[in-house]
Specification:
It is a single chain. This protein has helices at residues 3-12, 53-59, 127-135, 143-153, 168-182, 209-222, 239-247, 257-265, 282-285, 291-300, 320-326, 360-374, 391-403, 417-429, 462-469, 493-502, 509-520, 540-546, and strands spanning 65-66, 84-85, 106-109, 158-162, 189-190, 196-197, 202-205, 230-233, 252-255, 276-280, 310-315, 334-338, 348-354, 383-387, 408-411, 434-437, 450-455, 479-485, 565-566, 594-596. It is α/β, with parallel strands linked by helices. The chain has three domains: 2-142 and 540-589, no CATH class; 164-331, Rossmann fold (3-Layer(aba) Sandwich); 348-517, 3-Layer(aba) Sandwich (Rossmann fold), CATH 3.40.50. β17, α15 and β18 (479-485) form a beta-alpha-beta unit. The two termini are 22 Å apart. The chain binds adenosine-5'-triphosphate (ATP). Residues 118-146 form the DEAD-box RNA helicase Q domain.
């Protein structure tokens, strides 16, 4: 029986035949070709290669689509009984274009790397989890999942980089859930003096409240009916309810660092039993903002040391200095880079426009008007995410847009948590199709139907740019990203041009010119490490050049289809984009690494 067959059978058995079938986010109505709605030269995008007419047919006209929701009675929640919202989209094109990632190069380094798999069924994940993977309609693993899951299931520490929207959440959730299932299931353990202390086996840390909620929701789906207990702890909301929940026992705790430290200090959570530690957006978690808290949690509370616990770090970007920090938390780890990491996928059409600060608002209005007249004005599914630099700027732009006939809502760190959640809900549902946000929304959020990301203000660095635009073009779908580039952003010209070039985007001549002028003026701008400052590069290779350390191994072939290619042997072969010769073809990947193509 095929997976699809089994899935249909299980839905037939449901006791609520009138309820629509659960559809995971990536199977819901996509914005195919919505990057072509701008008149001003946006490339026509073609229908994804893996479009399924059968699925589209079977869902057409059914009306409601399903979305996950937070349910306080989580224990009673049924996988196929999640909240239903009305979907007015006539043509419910259902896509699964994950084949878009097929040709992505993969670099793995470390000792004795477990080989990748081609299917989920090749890995011993446990029946319950496998059934949920089918329920989620994850037919085949994405490249990061193909490589990372076997490494993690083998118990290895892992530092993994993969492009935004390519499925990293499942890549760390599956091994954790499967590991917890294999360990005897925990309940709240009583420690000392009769006080109730929750002792989770796994801890997943994320930088924002919204992202921790999202991971929690995902993990709950993956762990549905497995008896694995999952809870979430994040700030800005009542700690009392979260503590009550923990008292009922927890195996996997998803948390933001601040709230977790609070709970540990109140002796409500102990990390003494942790076997699995995952840091999502790991580079953000270890940068200057979070590093002291993370160090405290990982090194100064009662968490078992590296070697006793398994540690997994995931992000789309991994700057050198963060890798240096991170290696303190890891033991004999595998470094995995899927794709030329940090470069965004060519699923995202990137446009950059030269706009002076004072003209930005009018420029935005024109852009949105054009979008409205060319696009699908009555569809609430073409969502636009506008990034600004400051919280005040977000509020002001929200008001300006509303005054000018565009329904917009702001989200930033000065809003209370309820307002933040409300803004996100309103945006996700399409009720307010424009979200004006600060970087609080730049990382990890998986919002279906984000068709257009506009960098109204450019971010401080190119990593943030990559994460921001990664809110569109996810799970193989197409997206559009527009950047307003002003005099204030000259330091970003070079790295922006490089990111665009590497994602096969057309780089405007004026941008290249600006980058050259900036370099010529003696200022270095955003300096990239060997052409990959924003992306993934195993730092241990630097050690290798000054010692006998040799850490790069071929990724083993699968059925002869997976022929690794050796692309060079040292730093000299690397493409260094410093001369700004951006039109010269850069080697696709390098770093003296052994690379292999995507997953088939
Ligand atoms: N194997 C799969 N098959 C189908 N869909 C998948 C698969 N893996 C992940 N997805 C879907 O892809 C989308 C993106 O996944 P996810 O949010 O994990 O990306 P990510 O790599 O963590 O992105 P970011 O870097 O922005 O955090 C989600 O909607 C998820 O449900």
């Amino acid at each position: 029986m095929t997976w699809t067959g089994m899935f249909s059978e299980s839905t037939r058995k449901t006791t609520r035949p009138t309820r629509p079938r659960y559809l995971p986010p990536h199977m819901r109505s996509p914005q195919i070709g919505n990057a072509s709605f701008l008149e001003t030269g946006a490339p026509e995008l073609t229908r994804p290669r893996f479009y399924s007419p059968q699925l589209a047919q079977s869902t057409r006209g059914r009306g409601p689509w399903l979305t996950a929701r937070r349910n306080p009675n989580w224990e009673d929640e049924k996988f196929d009984e999640l909240e239903v919202v009305d979907d007015t989209l006539e043509e419910a094109n259902v896509t699964n274009n994950l084949e878009a990632y097929d040709d992505i190069p993969v670099q793995a380094s470390g000792d004795n790397i477990p080989p990748p798999v081609k299917t989920f069924s090749e890995i011993d994940l446990g029946d319950g989890l496998k059934q949920n993977i089918r329920r989620c309609n994850y037919i085949k693993p994405t490249p990061i999942q193909r490589h990372a899951i076997p490494i993690a299931v083998a118990g290895r520490d892992l530092m993994a980089c993969a492009q935004t929207g390519s499925g990293k959440t499942a890549a760390f959730c599956f091994p954790i859930i499967s590991g917890v299932l294999k360990d005897s299931l925990s309940v709240t353990r009583r420690v000392g003096g009769g006080s109730e202390v929750a002792c989770p086996l796994a801890l997943i840390l994320a930088p924002t409240r919204e992202l921790s909620c999202q991971i929690y929701e995902e993990a709950k789906k993956f762990a549905y009916m497995t008896r694995v207990q999952i809870a979430v702890a994040y700030g800005g909301t009542s700690i009392y309810h979260q503590l009550r929940r923990l008292e009922r026992g927890v195996d996997i705790l998803v948390a933001t660092p601040g709230r977790l430290v609070d709970m540990i200090e109140r002796a409500k959570v102990s990390l003494g039993m942790i076997k699995y530690l995952a840091l999502d957006e790991a580079d953000r978690m270890l940068d200057m903002g979070f590093e002291p808290q993370i160090r405290r949690i990982v090194e100064q509370m009662d968490m078992p040391p590296p070697g006793t616990r398994q540690t997994m770090l995931f992000s789309a970007t991994f700057p050198d200095e963060i890798q240096r920090f991170a290696s303190d938390f890891l033991l004999d780890y595998v470094f995995l880079a899927v794709g030329r990491v940090g470069s965004s996928t060519d699923l995202i059409v990137q446009r950059v426009e030269l706009v002076q600060e004072m003209d930005k608002r009018n420029h935005l209005l024109n852009l949105l008007r054009t979008q409205r007249s060319n696009g699908t004005p009555h569809s609430k599914h073409a969502l636009t995410l506008v990034f600004v630099e400051t919280k005040r700027g977000a509020d002001k732009l929200e008001r300006w847009l509303s005054r000018n006939g565009f329904s917009a809502i702001a989200m930033h760190g000065d809003k209370v948590q309820m307002e933040r959640e409300q803004a996100l809900r309103s945006f996700k549902s399409g009720a307010t199709p424009i979200l004006v946000a600060t970087d609080v929304a730049s990382r990890g959020l998986d919002i279906p139907h984000v068709a257009h990301v506009i960098n109204f203000d450019m971010p401080k660095n190119i990593d943030d740019y990559v994460h921001r635009i990664g809110r569109t073009g996810r799970a193989g779908k197409f997206g559009l990203a527009t950047a307003f580039f002003s005099d204030k952003n000259l330091h970003l010209a070079k790295s922006l041009a490089e990111v665009m070039k590497e994602s096969s985007q057309e780089v405007p001549t004026w941008l290249i010119q600006n980058a050259e002028n900036y370099s010529a003026s003696g200022r270095s701008g955003w300096v990239r490490h060997r052409g990959v400052d924003y992306g993934g590069y195993d730092l241990r290779k630097d050690i290798a050049s000054s010692s006998t350390y040799n850490d790069t191994y071929a990724v083993p072939a699968i059925d002869g289809q997976y022929a690794p290619t050796f692309l060079g042997s040292g730093g000299d072969d690397h493409w260094v984009a410093s001369d700004m010769n951006l039109n010269a073809a850069a080697p696709p990947y390098g770093y003296g690494s052994v690379v292999a193509s995507g997953w088939d």
